User: Fold these one by one.
Assistant:
Number 1:
Amino acid sequence: ENDLWWAQAAAVPGAAGTPPGSTSPADEFQSVQYGLAKMNVADAWKVTLGNPDLVVAVLDTGVDYNHPEFAGRIIKGPNFSYRKPEPTAKQGEQPAPGPDDPMDDFGHGTHVAGIIAAAADGKGVVGVAPRVKIMAIKVMGASGGGTTWDIAQGIHHAYKNGAKIINLSLGGPKSNDFVDLLISDALAHGSLVVAASGNNGWNLDGPPVSLGGLGSVPHSIYPAMYKGAMAVGATDDADKLANFSNYGRKLSVVAPGVKIVSTMPTGPCAMTKKAGFMNHYDAMSGTSMATPMAAGAAALTMSAHPDWTPAQVQEALERTADAVGPAPFFGRGRVNVGKAVI
């Protein structure tokens, strides 16, 4: 099956590595990174900024591995979205990244990666877990879309090559048994899969959605709805559910996902050329942004407790989440990683 899955991007520009007692990073745009304060990241940083040996896989449109925020901490994975180019390219058209090149030619993946792990270097932004490594695996191309098969290959590559957390800021309404099996296998290999719940504004416990002549599908977004995935919804700077976020008892947690400032590719890409985003840094909204917030929190928790299983890490994040809204709309609550790492 070769169904098309889409990145959950809201393309509207808007505004154990460290010993206890370490000082918190202070980066250039940190004052507008409200999500860090909401998730109590400063308290978590007193325990760890992230184990430098911990690898978080970002399965997305690629990552700009030349961005200074990721210097020395990128593991280049494959480009599963690669398609053999036409014999003649349009004049002036940039060639697409090759099969071994996970360069981001869209912009979404670089933004996601920065939320997780932008460096604590006093410049730009700082990620939730600024010392962990990012494994860049390109499963979506310059259009922001990719196939089920591309994503399946990406998941398999990630957990077979040492990624302990797999971030999936993507999704679609149709399930796939093979991807479901791969996520279960990832858990068995010690990898936590964190996935976006979707930007449809759906109650995930509601009745099926009509697709007109194409029939109907459940109020579900996959891979977030698979049993083995940690599904994440989005909140804003007032701890209210984002108006676009899917919600319901199928969520694990929620995390900040509205006007999140993070890294953008340093060179032109689809989002900077067509959607008006700036190079280097910009703000985006979506469950795509909330998901790496939660994945970064998972990275800090796993760094503080390297002997914990993925299930234990997820349980800690759920158990310590703040009840900011009525259950079950917010899952178990909004992530509070300062409590989870203890």
Number 2:
Amino acid sequence: SQPSVGDFQRAYQSLAAETGRILSIHVSSGFSGTVEAARQAARALGERCRIEVIDSGTVSMALGIAVIAAARAARDGADLDACAEAARSVLRRERLTVGLDTLEYLRRGGRIGRAQAFLGGLLRLKPIITIRDGEAFPLARVRTRRKALEEMLTICLADDAIAEAVVMQATTPDDAAYLAEELRRRRPGVAVHLGRFGPVLGVHGGPGMLGLLVVLAEEPRAQP
């Protein structure tokens, strides 16, 4: 279950004893009430501490990579606003592709969103979706698992300017290893990480769920 308002109040109060600024980044409000609980707790704390709550609009390592970016900014001495922007910058540049064996688990969990349009004609096809703001959006559908892997690579590598990538899996480590190997081969020099979907996402996506996340490189800043 999600953290309660009281859980957040206790966490914020503990941190407020050491700092006057807190950055709190969370899973998409489309999937969980965590963000709203965090906001209520932040309001309850009042003026004692500035708390910036960010709804990531995403899940899993798509959220994790943004949190890591904020943590790196903080480590380098950035202030709260700059740390928040570091996270938001990553979130804006993310491209998430998810391959499923079936949409049935999303349908049962009420998370199918606009991918509902795929249901009628799927038959034995493998759906490929993306997730935005807690809703599933259809991208493609293919007949075999291997074609699904190739289509995921094609979608995510459509942009050449990739800074880093993450492959996520729940029950398919061999497929994840294949995607990671292909990413490294096709985009030498791009950092490729391996991660796992948590049990909640695994329940919604079903066995065989596989994710491919790329973070596009930042555009060069214009010279003054």
Number 3:
Amino acid sequence: MSDSLSAKGKRLQPSWSPPAGGDVPQLRLYNSLTRAKEPFFPQRGTRVTWYCCGPTVYDASHMGHARYR
């Protein structure tokens, strides 16, 4: 049996390790008020909530529903 499959046939996820390098990428979001991309900083430590006004969806929500054309 392959090393990447468990006894039940499900794939095992490799352990995660942070990327190597000095620069940490920063999430930047478009601010429609200032019309500029600005760095994102969570208001409550590491907890983030997200509200997106958009189309009515009839299935599980995902980030693709938040895209702008």
Number 4:
Amino acid sequence: MRETYCIFSANYLPNIGGVEKYTQNLAFALEGLDKTVIIVTNNCFDLLSHENISPNISIYRLPCYPLFNGRFPLPKKNTEYKKLLKQLNKEKIDYVSINTRFYPHTFTGVKLAESKDIKPIVVDHGSAYLTFGNSFIDIFVRAWEHFVTALLKRHDIDFYVVSKAGLRWLTNFKITGKGVLNNSIDAKFFHAQSSQRDFRNELGLAESDFIVSFIGRFIPEKGIIPLTEAAKQLQSHTDIHFLFAGDGVLKKTIEEYQLSNVHLLGKIDSNDVAALLETSDCFCLPTRSEGFSTSLLEAAACETTSIITHVGGVDELIPTDEYGVIIGDTSPEIISKAILELYDNPELNKKMAKKIYERVVNDFSWEKTAERTIAACQAANK
């Protein structure tokens, strides 16, 4: 009989984020290994409360209050919520994997696992404190994270992370992680599914123009404002253009810069993301915190050099300066300097892109991560 893996993720598609993509890709990889998967998430988009998204993958969407534009969903424990949990409890479940520590949704997963005498694993996706871009609010967010982690530690749980940086981060909460279940990608498939959308032609850019791309949420921790400041500093280089794909609370702030070399593309699907990365000369993510950036993997899959801060996943994917550019901080001056290094050295850029592409193809597959997840769940329940 097929084993059933229940994955809890506070947010899921169509919300765009690293954890959401991690959950989706892991679910399909587990299905490919002859497992049944149940995804449990919050219904931030008023979608069907329960449906099958694949022959062996179903999803439960629990009613919630989508605080902070859905970034922090709180359970709405109404009649529908209780009905869905009752239905979920009747499911045959062998193992439980929970993404992230600090959501109320995490405890829903723990409670379900304990009711079925299953020891869950919690997979942490961060390498720094969660931030909402407001220093006053962030004080309470940090206190909440410590408080909720202390409560979580009272339960019998095995903790895992998505990068080596995550293991170091967990020690701040006096947690010793059991191992790494790294973010991954089907590199050849991702590259092949490109829409071939011609962004250069759409924006009137020449083939010789140097394109710096950013893909992600327009929020403070992703470093979008320092990157915009770097674009401002590089305006004298009229053949360097910045293409930003995504949306978020800082969109209006970016628009107020009124920079002719910055082009806002809005949200784009994964096919267009591949096309954007293919035409980019480099991908830049001056982020403050990442578990293991999905966009970093996607850039590598499209043979595009990355400029990124030393966050989770970077140690694994960029072990030396032959594979990409790691910047020490997110100051506009440092970002500008890194961009110009690649701009002035096209052959070096090509060599880096080729090296990181070969690395992601050979070492970062979802099948391997799914196999490690299976082993982690089984080890927790020996």
